[in-house]
Amino acid sequence: MADRISAKQRSRNMARVRGMNTKPELAVRSLLHRMGFRFRVGVSSLPGSPDIVLPRYRTVIFVHGCFWHRHQGCKRASMPSANRSAWTRKFTATVERDQFARERLIALGWRVLTVWECDLLKDLKAAVIELGRALDSSRDLNPDYLPSNKRVLETAEERMRLECNRREQQITSRARGRGRRCRV
Questions:
Q1: CB of 88 within 8 A of CB of 77?
Q2: In this structure, how many other beta carbons lie within 10 angstroms of the beta carbon of residue 176?
Q3: In the 3-class helix/strand/coil scheme, how is the chain assigned residue by residue?
Q4: What are the tens digits of pLDDT across the range 32-68?
């Protein structure tokens, strides 16, 4: 079956698939920070480059998308109908890489937690509170001060938009200082 969109458009679509700072990841980070947890992001020195690292708790958190990481039993983990063999190889390699990273992290003494995208979309508060309890059972985690799913995802999107605008303004002001026009 032929693709419904052009190769150029498909390339653009695939280039927009992010590996870091996805909406679910930003939402989890935002709520963990509100609950008082401090963490590092994008630690490439650890196997699998975990999304969130909490050194104090010797814990790493992976925020996995159900499609790419093949969440068992999830409707979002569907198989594309075109080029099934290539997708199967790609998904198998991803799952094996995830398992290998998990085993290496455990061998190094890290506790590994995985948060799935569909769990966040169902009930973000419950997922993050459960995560917080797994990290530190001595804390009293009050769900009343946590915002709704929709608001957290909108906040993450707004934060990304503001960051882009701030960078554009920095580039514009630098260009003005040199007497040049900015091409943003």
A1: no
A2: 11
A3: CCCCCCHHHHHHHHHCCCCCCCHHHHHHHHHHHHCCCCCEECCCCCCCCCCEEEHHHCEEEEEECHHHHCCCCCCCCCCCCCCHHHHHHHHHHHHHHHHHHHHHHHHCCCEEEEEEHHHHHHCHHHHHHHHHHHHCCCCCCCHHHCCCHHHHHHHHHHHHHHHHHHHHHHHHHHHHHCCCCCCC
A4: 888 888 999 989 999 999 999 999 889 999 999 888 8
Sheet of 111-116, strands arranged across: 40-41, 52-54, 59-64, 111-116
Please count the other Cβ atoms lying within 10 Å of the Cβ belonging to residue 133: 12
Residue with tokens 């199967």: 88
Residue with tokens 């948060």: 115
**Is the whole-model pTM more than 0.85?**
no
Q: Which two tokens stand for residue 162?
A: 């503001």
